[in-house]
Each structure stands twice: as structure tokens, then as C-alpha cells.
Amino acid sequence: MMPRHGVLSLLLLAVVLVVCVESGKNWVLLVSGAEGYINYNIQSCPCHAYHTMRNNSIPPENIVHMSYDDVAHDPENPIQGNLVTLPGGPNLYPGCEMDYRKKEVTPEVFLKVLTGDKEGVKKLIGRDGKVIDSGPDDRLFVYMMDHGGPGVFFFPGTNVKLHNTDLINALKQMHREKRYKEMVIYMEACHSGSMFDGLLPKNINIYTTTSANATEVAFMCCWDKFRKAYVGGIYDNAWLYDSDKANLHKETLYQQYVVTKKACEKPAYKSHPQQYGDLNMNKDVLAQFQAKSEKYIPSVCPNTQKTDGHIQGPEFTFAGIDLNNPALDMVQIATTARRLIESRDLSSQKREELKAELRHMMLVKEKAESLTKDLVKAAMPNSRGLTETDILTGKERVDNSECYKAALNFFSTRCPGINMRRYPFARRNLQAFINLCNHQSQIDVMNAILEVTEKYSICRAQ
């Protein structure tokens, strides 16, 4: 007969083996969806996240990073090969590995990577690419940052966007195929809540937080006078610096959500982070998704600077835009305005160029608003009890996604002068497209776009 201590040893070994098998792997997917130096923080924050995950012992082969990767070496960058998320912060670009760059960063590639479709990725980009090759015992952490609009998350390119229905369908597919045990998604974008609100099931083991609710914008922080750019996001810096200094084996997802919520409520213009999906998961500790080993390094930034001073400040506005913590979709206007205000060392020619650029952007903003009003008027020959004000001010969810997709694509084709990729502030009018599609036939909406864009000279601008 085996001694009692021998039996206990075998039982203990069996328990350890079961725990090891059930623990599975940790996977991380990081997405930076914007290009251009003006969108500095949209590339710097995912780089910060990459270092955070690596310092927390997530192996590089289990991290997939998608980024256009043109900011660090942009001619406007005063220190080539440099990215920070706080003025005076450490350089995060060295060692920030990227798996997909430039034209490979698309919604189609993202969905193939997320769902582990290696062949699909190869067909799209012509080469083998790293994917989330996860299984039923694995945990997945996804962090996405870019500009957004109602029901859409934008990618680089003139008219390239991920629709909420396509994202949710991919997540449901992954659940059916048992491609994860639990998944956490952090999303930073204006209207980011609209990607999940009323759509993400509560019973597929996915928990997500967003930087804003379904109907509001998100906000930037951390203006860097030397780099002449906003280098951080309020939501992003809040969770990133919290993860850098917190004990990830004690702090929960909910506690980190509270950290981001408090940060986003500090500026004069607030956003309201949200939680969606399986809220029971918010009791899980951060280490289950953001770390692999108990021996992780507790700080990617040696000084662990507090971001509070970069979030709050004296009132400083242009055309009603807070220039300390501007809305993410106002980045072009806010950046140009601050450069002009701080242009003492610039030539008079450069100042005139900045003024002209500001005037043009304000014109585009005005025309986008005017065009939307005319579009709503033209699309409502049969109002069905609704007024134009109802359509212009309503905050409805996307009920007719096919009409909405078709309308956005057609409008972008018909009116290149209002480039929603270049001018994200023009997306503030997209809610009217959703409301129209929910109440009018698709043909009425398309005919209205055809009729109205014909009358605007800006729609013929390239």
C-alpha cells in the first residue's frame, strides 16, 4: 500500500496539472487605427500598452500589434524614432514590435487576426501573418484606439471603418468555435459605447469597457509644446499608468474601470466610460488578462508620473473647443489652434498657413453640418410622424445596418471634400444617417444623398 504522504503528493500533483491545463495561454491584440503625426497619441498609447504587456511577462509571440507606424519617423517629429504618452515621458518606440503596418491595417485584416484565420490573412496581404491562435482555455485582452462615430470604429484610409455589427458577429463566431475562455476589450474612440451597447451578449464570457458612451465623444490630454502634439488620451493614460504601478494580482477589472471613469470625469468637458457584456467578469483580477507571471516588473515608466496635472488646467479654448483636453475628433482643429497660439518662433508665412488651415477646417465643419440638415430635409418626403429635428437630434441605435453602411459609403464617394478620415469632426453628423435609415427606406436615403451632394461645391473638392 502506498504511504499516505505519497497519495497526498499524487493528489497535489494532479491538482497542479489540472490548474496548469485550465490556465491556458494569454493573448493580446493591440490596434492603432490612425495615421499621420496629427494622430500622435493614437500610435503612442498602443506602444505603451505593448511595453506594459511585455513587462508583465506576456510573451511576444502571443501579442499581435497593428499600427500604421508613421508617427515615430514623421518629419514633424522633433526626435526621430521617439514616442511618448506624457511630456517628458520615456521613449516607448524602441522595442515596440508591430506585426501589421501601413496598408495592412484594415478592418478585414483585423477581423481575420482576431478570429485566428491564418489563411484569410494570407489572402488579404499576400504573406503569412501572426493571428490570435487561441483555444478554449485561453484568455484574450484586446485594446483598440482610434477615431470613431456612431456604430463605427475607423481604420487608416479615406473611407475605411469597422461596423459594430461586423465586430459583434466576429465575437459571436469566436464563442461558437470555443476560441477563448474569457475575453476583455478596452476601446478608446468617440462613440465607442455604440460598438457594444445593446449588441454584445452577456453570456459569451466577454467583458468590455469603453472611453465614452454610445452618444458622446472621448477626450485627449497631454499637450507637448516641444512635439506640438497631444501625446496621450485621458482614458488610455489612466488605465496604462494604473497597470504600470498597480499590483495586477490584487486589482480587479472593475477597480481599473473606476480609475478610468474618475479620470474621464475631471475635464470641463466629460466623457463617461461604460461597461458592457458579462459584468460578473469585472471581479477578475487584471493579471488574468494583462500578465502571465507573478514576477512582472511593476512599472514601464520609471518615474510613474501622475497624469492628473495633464488632465486638468485653466480654461483655454478656441471656438468652444477645450485646448487642454480636446475631444478626440477635434484633434486637427485643436492641434492647429495651439500651434498658432504658440507660434512666436514661427515665420509669418507659417503663421498664415496655420490660419488658412484653421479657416478651411472650420468651413468643412460648417458645410458638413449644413449638408446634413439639407440631407435630412430631402430624405423625408414621407415623415411618418417624425420631424427633421427628431432625425437631427435623436440618439438611436443602428437598426438598419445595411442601409447605414451603404449610406456612409455612398456619401463618402459623392463628397470627398468632407473627408471623415482626415476630418473626424465631420463624423458628428453621422447620427442623422442612423436615424434616417431607421425610419426611411434605403432608396429614399440614397436619393437624398445624390440630390443634396450635387448642390455643394465642397463635394466636388478633392
Tally of structural domains? 2
Work out the helix count. 15
Average pLDDT reading: 87
By secondary-structure content and strand pairing, the structural class works out as: alpha/beta
According to DSSP, the number of beta strands is 13
| CATH class (first level) name of the largest domain | Alpha Beta
Inertia-based shape: globular
CATH architecture of the largest domain: 3-Layer(aba) Sandwich
- H/E topology pattern: HEHEHHEEEEHEEEEHHEHHEEHHHHHH
| Computed CA radius of gyration, to the nearest angstrom | 23 Å
Largest sheet: 6 strands, mixed
> Biggest sheet: strands side by side, in what order?
2-1-3-7-8-11
Low-confidence stretches: 7-22, 299-304
What is the fold named in CATH at topology level of the largest domain? Rossmann fold
Strand content: 5-15%
Work out the helicity level.
25-40%
Task: Give the termini separation.
Answer: 86 Å
Pfam family, one: Legum_prodom
InterPro entries: Legum_prodom (IPR048501), Legumain_prodom_sf (IPR046427), Peptidase_C13 (IPR001096)
Protein name: Legumain
Organism: Aplysia californica
How would you characterize this protein structure?
The model is unreliable at 7-22 and 299-304 (pLDDT under 50). By secondary structure, this protein is of the alpha/beta class. The chain folds into two domains: 22-311, 3-Layer(aba) Sandwich (Rossmann fold); 348-460, Topoisomerase I, Chain A, domain 4 (Orthogonal Bundle), CATH 1.10.132.130. It has helices at residues 4-23, 40-55, 107-114, 118-125, 164-176, 234-245, 253-264, 287-290, 308-311, 331-341, 348-378, 388-393, 401-414, 430-439, 442-453; strands at residues 26-32, 63-66, 139-145, 148-149, 152-154, 161-163, 182-188, 206-210, 220-224, 229-233, 274-277, 317-318, 321-322. Strand 4 (148-149) and strand 5 (152-154) form a beta hairpin. The chain has 15 helices and 13 strands. Residues 337-371 form a coiled coil. Keywords: Coiled coil, Signal. Residues 1-23 form the signal peptide.
